[in-house]
From TrEMBL:
Record's keyword terms, sorted: Plasmid, Ribonucleoprotein, Ribosomal protein
GO cellular component: ribosome
Region Disordered: start-end pairs: 1-30
Protein name, as recorded: 50S ribosomal protein L22
Organism whose genome encodes this protein: Borrelia miyamotoi
Length: 30
């Protein structure tokens, strides 16, 4: 679970896969 948080923080800075960051951030917010 904590791994997703790191991926989200890095994904926000990386415009490589913004779609993958959006679903992950939603899961963490929930």
């Amino acid at each position: 679970m904590f791994v997703n948080r790191r991926y989200t923080a890095r994904g926000k800075n990386l415009p490589s896969s913004p779609q993958k960051v959006r679903p992950i951030a939603d899961n963490i917010r929930r």
